[in-house]
Amino acid sequence: MTALRDAFLSALVALGLFAPLVGLVTTSGEHGLYLELRPIATAVVVGLVFLGRLIVLSRRSRGRAASLAAKPALAERISKAGKYVTPLLLIAAVALPFTGSRYYIDLGTLVLTYIMLGWGLNIVVGLAGLLDLGYVAFYAVGAYSFALLATNFGLGFWTCLPLAGIFAAFAGVMLGFPVLRLRGDYLAIVTLAFGEIIRVVLINWVSLTNGPNGITGIPRPTLFGLALSMDGGPGTIAGFFNVEPAVIQRIIFLYYVILGLALLTNWVSLRLRRMPLGRAWEALREDEVACRSLGINVRNTKLTAFGIGAIFGGFAGAFFATRQAFISPESFTFIESATVLAIVVLGGLGSQLGVALAAIVMVGGLETLRDFLSFLGDQMNSPLFSGIASELPLYRMLIFGLALVVMMVLRPRGLVSGRTPSVALHKVKDIAPDLVAQGRG
Amino acid sequence: MAYALQQLINGVTLGMIYGLIAVGYTMVYGIIGMINFAHGDVFMVGSFLSLIALLGLAALGITSVPLALALTLIFAAGIAALYGWTIERVAYRPLRGSFRLAPLISAIGMSITLQNFVQVSQGARVKPIEAIIPGGIQIMDQGGFAVRLSWMQIAIVVITMSILGIFTWLVTKTPLGRTMRACEQDLKMASLLGIDTDRTISLTFVIGAALAAVAGFMFLLYYGVIDFYIGFIAGVKAFTAAVLGGIGSLPGAVLGGLLIGLIEVFWSAYFSVEYKDVAAFAILIVVLIFMPTGILGRAEVEKV
Amino acid sequence: MLSVSGLIMQFGGLRAVDGLSFEAKTGDITAVIGPNGAGKTTVFNCITGFYRPSGGSIDLTHPGGASHKLHTMPGHRIASAAKVARTFQNIRLFAGMTVLENLLVAQHNTLMAATGFGVLAVLGLGRYRAAEAAGIEKAKFWLDAVGLTARADDPAGALPYGAQRRLEIARAMCIDPVLLCLDEPAAGLNPRESDELNQLLMRIRAGGCSLLLIEHDMGVVMRISDHIVVLDHGKKISDGPPAEIRNDPAVIAAYLGEGEEDEVPA
User: CA 20 to 30 Å from C41, out of A359, B157, B275, C26?
Assistant: First the structure.
């Protein structure tokens, strides 16, 4: 009975929230805007809230005792499964192109780009505990430095890749040097501001960046000097291997490039974690004051985290540019930073496997949702759904936003939340997540 | 001189709007130490609610402008307050006492949700309205350049000032304000002393959202055009204002808002419109380098 | 060894340390005592570089002869170059890292130098492997000294309170200090743990490291210190060996007048 009352109250609140914005639609008519009534949609939304609340409440009252007992078991299962999941994922990643499906390879490339960005940002946020809301800036710097070097000086991808990393690291150090002594959310807002500054500059510095129109004709990478070209002549990959040139070859090649880059990021992060530098990052996250008392130069250590994180952002940016062959400032908005940060946090700060899983869930999920929604829209040709069918794809980001909230509420510490020590005297034992700090910087 | 005066007037008006939003950021930050990323979008929702109320009142045949404006303001602030309350309940309260980044991601998720919710429900197109309070007064005329102070600008400054006045009274003189300040000082201690901290936090969100809605209402009247995306950039600027003024400080939020408004307007007038956001953010970075806790922020003495 | 002269620390209108001068000799255990709010921790924070003094000077002379002006050095250099280590009143361990990792972080500068700016070590080259082995040996030595070898792979945050205190001391010792500053090391320890602490401190002194400690537990102070400095209201009111301090009327007055009962010198 109380559940019913509770659900009724929720529905009442929902009515207050949705009656104006869902029920009254501002529509442009001949004499300016007017309001259009949409009572059915409002009723549906409010009804959904009522039902949803009822279901949640009934499940909660039934499952409370059981879920409490199940929780540690679940966490344990995930960390145990981690041993098998990692090689399985790796095999799947290497084998993916053999499906020959362009759709899956493209999706895989996209997911791997985000995995790489996630691993890069993980160095900054997960290990060093520095909250960076403007990671997209380094992604943009990498993309634009490659695009500009390639189109203006005719340099190739592999020459520019390290340069893109260096430029991005330079941007990271430039930003980090003055601001890394700021604490917590001050750092967050400054990095966010930096991301916006870079984007605004890219839009408005038309003579260099071609402004909002972006840069076109960015070259593709080569394979040991062999070009990816459709003419199939000598000096191209198809010509060298004596096969028919096809678009799929380029897609597969790009897929392996990003797979390699992502694995490089992972390898470097894992190595660094076992080095004094990586340990100092984690120590900074745990307690900055104690670090200072042990003679660790806090600012330089933070700078290295910022710089190395930026390098991988720059690499990913250069890859993005070469894959798209076209870049514009539109690709480097705050939502990208937010997505990558969400991947890191949902993955479980500091966990390489968690980041990979979170990227698969989030980016893969978003793309699947896109296809699902347009499929659903196509199926709805009954006049009953006439209003909604064409708008369905718009619901994608709405669902994404809600999913972020729900995932955080359900798993605030992320998917893989424990910490594995970097060294052991006797036996490596995982550390419970509630002991691990998240940093204040 | 006349040109500069005009920019000053415009800058102050814009700064008032930023200041009102910034107060919401700074209050929430002060009490639970999180960036309420969805706050800018509550501002956007507030301006849409105002638009809907104005159109609805016009359809109902209410022609008295002051009455319509007052009703709109109450309606927008009330519903936005409900939004603020719901957001806190749904997205933040379950994460109270959790790890630092979880509420932040939840807030970013809420911001994306609100933006896309309004886009889906109200459409992606910009919504223009005619000026509700047209006209103004001419203060001076110098070499053909007339400095104008519109009624709208006067209204914005007067409404902001009075609302901030009420709000200051609320925080400094009432028991409610006392509990809010107590929670801001030390949430755990306040709850040990019998203060219902959940309720106080809810109220903080409610008040912050209502103030944001007032800002949204004035934004709509001042610019006459809104869309679902105005929340992000206004939110970032207002948060910048809160940080600039010293986050946690209410007068700081208003001061920061004014500064950001003035910087933006003067930069656009004298240098370039394109780089006005860069100017605001660059000044934020510079100020923080020299005053790491903002202009009116309390200096933190590190306890070791 | 350590010579503090005319030290002043001003916070706004409050003068927490007011013209303090004292000396700590090489190989001594020097205790700084005084009622709550006397400015003891502030003095520590000045010596270890967490506060920049408003006036006065702090000079440290190594047994080898090298000397450092601590009042002008940045905090991390005081640990890395001047070799002054410290612990904290409210223990500051890296709670989410293991005991062993805590001790390796403390050797950061030595180990970092062996990595060749990180690049060589990432590639698995250079002499990092040997350096790390040496680092682990040193950690083992101190783990053994504080009796935590069995818990080396447990997270520091999961240790009981007394063990955390000992680990913090072991971690500080891993920077090879010439002067170890301890901020209330016996606080919260039971009598047995307190005794063990005394032995540990004696052992550290025997190893050639001088000690400076703030302590409330007069039992500990009187038993182990060679020299005591008494502060009240930021000023030195007495200075001398334990026997002298015990009978100094100014000290008794300061404690009886303003201290809490449990702080009466034993």
Answer: C26
The Cα–Cα gap between B99 and A49 comes to 28
| Crossing angle of the two packed helices C161-173 and C128-146, in degrees rounded to 10 | 140
Give me the residue spans of the domains in chain B. 2-290
Of B173, B188, B133, the closest CA to residue B155 belongs to B133
Fold of C90-176: Rossmann fold (3.40.50)
Question: Cβ–Cβ contacts within 10 Å for residue A166, how many?
Answer: 16
Going from the C-alpha of B28 to that of each of B15, B162, B230, C263, the distances in angstroms are: 20, 21, 21, 42
**How many other β-carbons are positioned within 10 Å of the β-carbon of residue A359?**
28
Phi/psi for A156 (5° steps) reads -90, 170
Listed in sequence order, the residues at least 6 apart from B51 whose beta carbon sits closer than 8 Å to its beta carbon are A26, A33, B127, B129, B220, B226
ipTM of the assembly?
0.89
CATH class of the region C1-83+179-266: alpha beta
User: Do the two domains C1-83+179-266 and C90-176 of this chain adopt the same fold?
Assistant: yes
Closest-CA residue to A77 (of A435, A368, A418): A418
The residue among C153, C154, C183 with the most chain A CBs within 10 A of its CB, best to mutate, is: C153
The per-residue pLDDT for range B71-80, each reduced to its tens digit, is 999 999 999 9
List the end-to-end C-alpha distance of chain B, in Å, as a whole number. 53
Say whether A25 sits in a helix, a strand or coil. strand
| Burial class of residue A39, CB neighbours in 10 A (0-12, 13-18, 19+) | exposed
Strand pairing of C55-61 and C2-11?
A: antiparallel
Query: Which of the residue ranges A171-175, A241-245, A374-378, B221-225 would you say has the lowest mean pLDDT?
Result: A241-245
User: What is the CATH number assigned to the segment(s) B2-290?
Assistant: 1.10.3470
- Which segments of chain B are extended strands (E)? 127-128, 136-142, 145-150, 225-226
Which among A187, A189, A207, A362 is the top mutation candidate for probing chain B, defined by the most B β-carbons within 10 Å of its own β-carbon? A189
| Phi and psi, residue A32, nearest 5° | 80, -160
Residues with Cβ < 8 Å from C236, sequence gap 6 or more? C20, C21, C22, C229, C230
In the stretch 20-59 of chain C, residues with CB closer than 8 A to chain A read 48-50
Contact A186 B243 (CB under 8 A): yes
Nearest chain C Cα distance for residue A307, angstroms: 13
Q: From chain B, pick out residues whose CB is under 8 angstroms from the CB of C41.
A: 304
Residue by residue, what is the 3-state secondary structure of A187-227? HHHHHHHHHHHHHHHHHHCHHHHCHHHCEECCCCCCECCEE
Tokens of A282: 């984690």
Q: How far is A96 from chain B (nearest CA, A)?
A: 31
Residues A243-278 pLDDT 10s: 777 778 888 999 999 999 999 999 999 989 988 999
**Residue count (chain A):** 441
Beta-carbon separation of B302 and C50 below 8 A: yes
**CB-based contact A295 C158, cutoff 8 Å:** no
